[in-house]
Amino acid sequence: MTASPRAQTGPVGVRFALPAAWYELDLDPATRAASLAHLVRRRLGGGSDPDAVAARRELTARLRRSARAAAEGGSTYAALCDHVVAGVPLSASLLVALLPVPRHGPLTPAGLVSLLTATRAAGAVDPAGAPSRPPVRVVELPAGVAARVRSTEPVEGTRTLQVQYLLPVPGATRVAVLTFATPNVAYGEPFEELFDAVARTAAWVG
Q: Does the reported pTM lie above 0.90?
């Protein structure tokens, strides 16, 4: 988690600085297969050893599922982290989707809070597993004023730490929804700090 960040540019017109252990997913169906094949070769190398071939096949299938699910869910940008630190497997994701603003004019901080509250799925749970309504707060990012919420969500039967930002697109009637998530709830505090640090690097392109 302490690796030097590198600049990334996504198709939503926003640039991030991601830790070196993170990598982007190509969500474009026209280029996805070739892009993922290149990504897998870069991460696992080549060779015809049966174990290496099986590992590449497994990673390719997993990345294809993730990219397909992200695109079908409305995301226009996706980045993943799959890393082992001191023998502990750590994983996280960043998805960015665009939503139309249900009215004209710039969003006020209060409007951001209301919109993020309205767009969040019902049934969020707190770390103890009880129903909750996590507080939404307004934060200042270099890319603009955003609404932020932290919660623990049940995802496919697994408790997942989720940090969401709602960030208005400058000069447009849309907002970018940045959703950070990790199943490593036991390491929630350092992951939350990492997510906030990445969110602060968001910068609009063009």
A: no
Count helices and strands in the chain by DSSP H and E runs: 4, 10
> What is the C-alpha to C-alpha distance for residues 128 and 39, in angstroms, rounded to an integer?
38
The full DSSP string for 105-169 is: SPPPHHHHHHHHHHHSPS--B-TTS-B--PPEEEEEETTEEEEEEEEEEEETTEEEEEEEEEEEP
Q: What is the DSSP letter of 5?
A: P
* Contact between 16 and 201 (Cβ < 8 Å): yes
**Both tokens assigned to 87:** 């023998």
Residue 124: phi and psi, rounded to 5, are: -60, 150
- Non-local CB neighbours of 121 within 8 Å, separated by 6+ positions: 153
Higher pLDDT, 133 or 92: 92
- Location of structure tokens 């390491």: 187
- Yes or no: say if 164 and 177 are a contact pair by the CB < 8 Å rule: yes
The whole-angstrom separation of Cα 171 and Cα 115 is 18
Question: Residues 81-93: pLDDT tens digits?
Answer: 888 888 888 989 9
What tokens does 117 get? 């509250």
Q: Which of 71-75, 187-191, 195-199 has the lowest mean pLDDT?
A: 71-75
